Amino acid sequence: MLSYDKQIILEELRDFPDQVQPRDQNEKILENIREERRKMLSQQRQRKYLVWVANGFVTCALLFVFIWMKPIVFPTETTGSTSTVDQTYSTAAQKAIEAVGITKKFNFEETEQDADTFIVRTKDREAIVTFLANTKDVRTVSVILAGDELPEMYQAYANTARAAFQDAKQEVRIEQAHLFQDLEGTTLSFYSDVSKPNNNQYVSVDLKTNKVTAFSIDHQPADVDQKVVSLAQKSLMRLANNKPISFTEARKSTDKKEEVWTLSNTKDKYSVKVGAITGKIYYTRYVSEYKIKSIDEAISVTKPLIQDMFGLDISGYTAYGGRNWGGYVLKQQGKPEISVNIESLDIGNISILTVKW
Asked: Any transmembrane segments, and where (predicted)?
């Protein structure tokens, strides 16, 4: 069986072909629930798993997989899923939802379980409740409501979200709210214009403080700090062979380390993600004429680009992946990891560069 760190790199490489495709919102919510379950499981495992995550890649085993291309079976934590729900759990799930002030009734039709948790959910996943296995001890509650179904007790938080949208010069109507509660606290996320394709604007508010904790909001490109725009344009100039760069869309959002601007041009299909405070370039997308013919060229072709665009010297980095994976991961211990996506597997032309600072 492959060790945990080797599984991570293989999963990253397999993500390349679909990396920029948006996922269904309800699937994201279920994945959040599963993540909470994984956290609880990890606390019970031996600490060697944490060491595996930090150790990085083991080259020989990875090359073995590339050569033989055998299907990899990853260990699964889920032991079963069923479309019938025991009435006692259905009742307990409804009570857990009522405990957070929501009186709407839900029809729980599906369950999922493993050794440590038991999940009860509606078929459309509008309501999901996680219990500690073999108990009625609630671990997480997730509920999606239409904007007009939100109880009065939560209206102050909705007003905070509206103010955040208005700061971006948007007059929006909150169409959907998502409440998520775990052992650490409760967050309400508010969504606008959910019926519009590819619109995933939201504002998340902490219930203890009534402060915005996360957001993703569209802005007018003209309202973006010109320094940020200049950095974004400069980062693309090399890939674009000095062709003019202009942005037609701008979105500000929270990320793991700082707030970021994503500036894009939908018509010409390019975009850049820039740190709002640091000015670091996190991500660029531009279908370029720079080609990587094989893994042997992954460092030599990208080295001047990455130096120019991100200010990083990748001397000493090792490349993993290949065209058949859809791209490459460039890694050196103690240095930022870089992903290189290929637009056409036949041509090998670079389209996306991502740095994990």
From this structure: 49-69
